[in-house]
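Hello again,

I reread your note about wanting to compare the complex against the isolated chains. To keep things tidy I'm splitting this into two emails, and this first one only covers the full assembly. Below are the input lines as submitted, including protein chains and any nucleic acid or small-molecule components. They are followed by the predicted structure of everything together. The single-chain runs will come separately.
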Amino acid sequence: MPAIDHAEATRLWRLMCRIRRFEDRVHADAEADRLEGYVHTYAGQEAVAAGVIPLLRANDWLTSTYRNHGHAIARGVPLDAIAGELLGKATGVSGGKGGSMHVADQALGMIGAMGIVAGGLPIAAGAAFAARYRSEDRVAVAFFGDGAVHQGAFHEALTFASLFTCPVLFVCENNLYAETTAVDYHLLAGSVVAMAEPYRIAARRVDGMDVLVVRAAAAETLEEMRRDGRPRLIEAMTYRFNGQYEGDTQTYKPPEEVARYRARDPLGLFRAHLSSGGIVDERTLDAIDDEAAGEVASAFVAADAAPWPVAAAVTADVYTGDPVEAERS
Amino acid sequence: MTRELTIKDAINEALHQEMAADDRIVLFGEDIAGGAGRDVSYPPAADAWGGPFGVTKGLLGRFGRERVIDTPIAETGFVGASIGAAVAGLRPVAEIMYVDFIGTSFDQLLNHAAKLRYVYGGKISVPLVIRTVTGAGFRAAAEHSQTLYSLYTHIPGLKVVAPSTPYDAKGLLIAAIRDPDPVIFMEHKRLYMQRGPVPEEPYEVPLGRARIARPGTDVTIVGVQKMVHTALAAAERLQAEGIDAEVIDPRSYSPLDTEAILSSVRRTGRLVVVDESHPRCSLATDIAALAASEAFFELKAPIRQVTAPHAPVPFSPVLEDAYIPSPDRVCDAVHDVMAERR
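Full-complex prediction:
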């Protein structure tokens, strides 16, 4: 693992704990039927969000997917606002309009969390295009899964970004399954990296369970991009610990595969590295984890107590300006 | 005793029976069985889903991966390939997991499936069925809750059906599969568990024929798919007030059974259309325009439309509940049209 100092290590550890504890809570609430709607959790993939997003500058752009909670937490969306959104409360980051599949804070440069597979890629490319056009020193990052690479939007976005020199970082979170379909079956190119090469986009595959490996690769990649303004692609090999969505029975995952990846839990790996390397001691790690769990618990207490949106919000925000009175009868 | 099935099981049975009878039928879609690729090394992976709602569950075991084909997430690819396979002699039934995902394949439907026959002077047919899932009420937010009926109905060359009962789900799907033209078969996610009588043998419900869901004399309520049930719930309440509402379920939006709607409107003189879609350029406006144009002098009151607002579907339970037309709103609209005296 690449080197890291104490302060940085505790920051990353805190972030990963926040994401995991948040998703643990969401998973438990979903299992207990306390959450409505479609919920896709990020547990198992924490090293990707934690490895990439803290390196971004405040003015960089992001697009995410329906598996967005980890990205939102890493970008600094307050846990209260995410929990509120998941419960459909007025205090949610989008006032309850979007719910779990669409958690994104535009004030933090998150353009959106798209419910349609690969929907965010061309949009991120366009944001990067605008940055270059306006001579702004900012990049865009598009997160997507391995299932997205067969969408036209993936290929068209890569073509656009490469042809028009857009500083966009395409981050594939290859969690081995496109919904229930195994990546070694559907990914005929062998890797997502191989799919970037024909578009003349430099790409690298990294161990997406190791936050320091992801971080080192992302740091180098972002530096290159900020220098030459070209797009890049990172394929982070990771694993989704829960289902495609909460409620998915996951009968398609062999138990030995699950065990193999659980043994490489990104939090477990990082923890072992920090404690065995003498970078952060076990007690501090535990204390941070407990604090994260406490923050998550209070976020949900706040969300539970928060008010519902007013009914008039249904027709607000369809267009810029005043809500349109469109309801009939 | 008549056997009862859910809509989900009625659709599954229709697919079983038609596939057994006709080996030209193949199914394409994302995770319509599930576990593709993994099931070779790990057999329990097979049939992991049967689609997100389990509608196609069990077909894999009987017909195999040669005919039950889990595709990559690539709608343009498999919808377009379904068109080609249909032209070349197969009878593909492709599933767009949610109607909201249609955008990623729309060119193939809009410009090719719908137009091949016409552009080439009737020398080619596209016997294709697209099954897709519609509807709000699942807290599934803006990109997994739309209905989009009118988007398809608008396009000449496509047929559009949307059953609201298990009987119609089975019969319309069989008719759609046997139809020589592309048919969009819309399944409302909130109706999958709706139970009702379904004969065991295969049968067709002809496309383009409406159903009187409830006969009545005072007012015609036309419901669009799930809104048939909303209209029926309203009709029950109205009955207690002495208003006898007729509820029409068009079932098929293209072709539309204009005669069934018009003859009901001519009898009652009053029309309320209930549609879960957005109000502009919708089935509600289409059906209202039909009655206004063809039965104007028989109308005793202005036509009322009860629809969702001109807004995307919100996630928040309180907002979504306010969004979807309710029996209360249908009753209000009926009270309005009944208050007019002419």
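For quick reference: Residues 7-21 of chain B form the longest helix (15 residues).

B.
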